[in-house]
Amino acid sequence: MVQTLKWIEAKSYEEMSEIAANIFKEQLQNNKKSVLGLATGGTPEGFYAKMVEAYKAGEISFAEAKSFNLDEYIGIEPSNKASYHYYMDEQLFNHVDMKREDIHVPAGDPSQVEKNTDQYDQMIEEAGGIDIQLLGIGVNGHIGFNEPGTSFESYTNVVELTESTREANKIYFDSIEDVPTHAITMGIKTILNAKKVVLLISGQSKQEAYDRLRSGEVTEDFPASALHKHPDVTVIYCDVK
Ligand code: GLP
Known about the structure:
The protein is α/β, with parallel strands linked by helices and 241 residues long.
C-alpha cells in the first residue's frame, strides 16, 4: 500500500522532543486558539519540558488554546500520582497559562465516566475539533488506551486494559494489583478526526510496534495502523532501527 505517514528519524530523545515541540509551537504561533490533543506516558515528558521552556521564554502562549487529553484510568483520584490528571498538571498545566476551564482530561471517577463517554466527542466537536493530536504508542500498538481489536470506528469509551498494558504501566504504581483494570479513552475514530497527528516512538521496547507500523499493514489487531488512514501524520522516532 502507499505509505502516507511522514517518518522523521531523530538522533536522540532530546532531538525527538525538540522536533515535536517545534511542530506544536508553530501550530500555536499560527493559531493561538488551537485545540490541542494531548498524551501522557514517559515518551512525551521531554516534549512537555520543551513546551514549558518555550512558554517561559515568551515564544508561545496557551491563554486562548484548549486541550483534550486522550485517556485516563478509571477508579483513581486526580490526586493520585499515577493518574493522568496529576501527570498533566505536573508536566504542563501547572506551568503555563492555559485556563482551567479550557483543559479537558477524561474523568476517571466511576460516577462521571458514563456522562463523559457520551459527551467527550461532542465537546471536542463543539470546540471546533482537534487541530493537532500528540500520540505515544503502547508496546502492543495501542494508541490512547485503544487495545488490539478495537474498532477503527470507535469513539470515546470505556475499555478493559490488557495484561501486557498493565504490566508495562506498573512502574507508575506500587504493585500490579494497584494498576487499574479499566480506562476511559478517546476512540480510534476520535483520534482519526484530528486534523493533524504527531506520533512519538522512542526506545527498544517499542521496536516491534515501530516495525509493524512501518510495514504498512492495516488491521484492527494493531490499533496504531489506523493512522495509515489519516492524511497528515508525522512519526518522530529515536532509538529504534
Ligand atoms: C499508556 C498511554 C498511552 C501511551 C502509552 C505508552 O498506556 N495510555 O497513551 O502512549 O502508555 O507510554 P510510554 O510513553 O510511557 O511508553
